[in-house]
Amino acid sequence: MQAYQRMLDPTPNGLHSGESPLLQTLGLSKRYGDFLANDSIDIDIWPKEIHALLGENGAGKSTLVKAIYGLIQPSAGEIRWQGEPIVLSGPSEARSRGIGMVFQHFSLFDNLTVAENVALGLDGKESFKDMSARLEQVSKTYGLPLDPRREVWQLSVGERQRIEIVRALMQDPKFLILDEPTAVLTPQEADQLFIVLERLKAEGRAILYISHKLEEVKRLCDTATILRGGKKVDTCNPRLETAASLARMMVGGEIKEVKAAAGRQTTIPRLVVNDLSLTPDEAHGVRLEHISFELKGGEILGIAGVAGNGQDELFAALSGERLSKDPGTVVIEGIAAGHLSITKRRKLGAAFVPEERLGHGTAPRMRLSENALLTGHAASGMVHRGFIDTAATLKTVDRATETFDVRKAKRDPEAASLSGGNLQKFIVGREILRNPAVLVVSQPTWGVDAGAAAVIRQALLDLATAGAAVLVTSQDLDELAEIADRIAVMFHGHLSEPLATRDATREKLGLLMGGSSLEPKEAAHAVGA
Amino acid sequence: MQLVLEKRAERSNTIALVSPLIAIGLTIVTMTILFAILGKNPLLALQAYFIAPLTDSYSLQEIAVKATPLVMIAIGLSLCYLANVWNIGAEGQFLIGAVAGSWIAVKTQGTDAGAWVLPAMFVLAAAAGALYALIPAICKVKFGASEILTSLMLVYVADLFLDYLVRGPWRDPQGFNFPTTAEFDPVATVPLLIEGGRLHLGSIIALLVVAAAAILLGRTIKGFEIRVVGAAPRAARFGGFNSNQLILLTFAISGALAGLAGIIEVAGPVGHLQPGISPGYGFTAIIVAFLGRLNPIGILIAGLFLALTFIGGEQAQIAMKIPLDVTKVFQGILLFYVLACDSLILYRFKLVFPNRQVARGTG
Fold it and tell me: Does the N terminus or the C terminus of chain A have fewer Cβ atoms within 10 A?
């Protein structure tokens, strides 16, 4: 094997290892069918460096790191490790060479303990007892507290991420890849993570940090490589750039500013939730606990929170995908609707945009016109006596296309053939064109390119200006700060009192997202009672 | 070099139309080899199978008669399959329909009952087929039982129930102890379309069923509901469609159509109730449904084609002593190829050269 690699090595001997990057890709390309996900990318990563990999969704970041971690084989180009060309047969070879990775989506077994999960990811030569001891020691050394005996389902998302990081660190990697690590963290948790990363850097390790949060990258990273459309745009020092200039490189143009109309008037309450509690219908689902809020016309209420704190359950309860026994828990346009089906709630003037675009918001292998019918059949004049008015469904597609700049190859393609951003514009457009009185939308710009995100946020603002009540659930605090009038936080199935957006600092929201300020609030309740 | 299946961006409509033809072509190639192994002249065998039945009026009528139950059952099955529920027990629903309809024929035998008898037989047969199909559907909705197993097992229940009736209570007293009812009265018999021919009213009913299904699936919200529930269940729930109701509905429709096909077969070409009234129509219809791309017009064509193999099989047996079971082999191979070729609608073959380290088409 090594002889084979030496044979492949075109570089002359005698290169000092200190002069060559720790990891290098040369002309690395990856092709999927007709689609070039990575187009001859050169990247140099040096020891003692935190290197940001920036790019929009679909820019090719994940493909690149998968190739570096041995999960996929590049179609062309080569990877060099400490100056020597390598062909990685798989992640275990990458790990044995000293490359570690922490994925955005965790691969943990909910019903196993922390130590058992870590053991599963290691090439178990040491005894379980030794391993557990080492686990505790590594987690203590790096300030990543973990109880090895707890089962994963009891842990918060931040703690689960710690398991993944500790598991990677136990291999003593020279090079660690982190894929969007702060996406699931509160601002305070993110700060703690940065301290750990700085320390790893000081120890001489290199870190490849994938993100699209520019402020974070400016604060943390020494170097940034920007990808766009599968190609490398530039490598720069992010500290010498502004967030705007980095964004321009990512997007390849200016991003439209979102403008809220001045003097928006709030009117009557259009969506009221009264003491809504629901037990989950899935094994590790979240129980909704006494959720109450009131949303007036002309107002946007943002719901922040780390994923998995009951946002999905709340969406299902508001949309009617889960019914409540007590009709009064959800009141739409003054009518008790907790027991009503999603179709009846739509007829009352409510509209819904779920987080998952393909398979929930749309049927992927059906045409856009059919997907317009999916939510429009109840109240949009698309059905007459049981017969579908095809012209009316096509008209909705055309209007959504025109109003929200949906780009597609033909007039009425399958939903799955659209890019994420264009499909999301269609879905939001489809609902807004029905002139809803209440719009409940979950993660409106998740995985969407910046241009489409701006269009969608503007559309939500315009809808509120026109008098609708809009409820936006998002994990992106910047997005909520941009469009919401008030922000509430979900934690363990509880919803906090909404804060006016101008008072909702990152620190306050971060505390609520971590569940910290619940105690004084409970005290206040006690005083009130 | 490596042959890989690559996902297409969008489903290929061309392949969707061509795929059954490719499957038929591959089946014929396989059959040619099979005939050669059996020591028969493949060309003559294929001629007996596919050409000879098309050359005389009797065989043509017989094809239509055989296609009638196949098409009616397959239309019902296609609704289930589109909704992603798997009714495998159409054979049982066919037999129960035949039994239920025959009950009226047997009870009115020899009386001077009027023209209401045949329509009443149709209605009762359809209702019985629907109820029989609802057993697995309700078990699935209420208890999560696999409808594939329960519907299949109920086939044997229906088969033995029919057997019991014609050997016991309904046996023709003048039938020399053969397990059969007496020949049905003329008012309980499906009228012929051509005097002295074989073609009967059932074929017209089958055509009406095809037209109704085409309208249901293509034009109505109910048809859309069936397709969404099958294609994207979570999106269907978001759309406000109740998948449990739809399971019951599609099973009931397919059971009703199978039951109706059963009584038409008994009161038509057979003329009395006896064991073995179906050469496996309920199972062959599964092939018809898939060969016809779960599309009503496609099913009509596929039904005629499968009927041709039944008639051709009989002719090949008479003319060349090829066993009748070869027809079943043929149908099985055909289903295999149809399902295999369907993957080409969503995927395509591609040759990959992993050793070529040149970045091609950087643009």
Answer: C
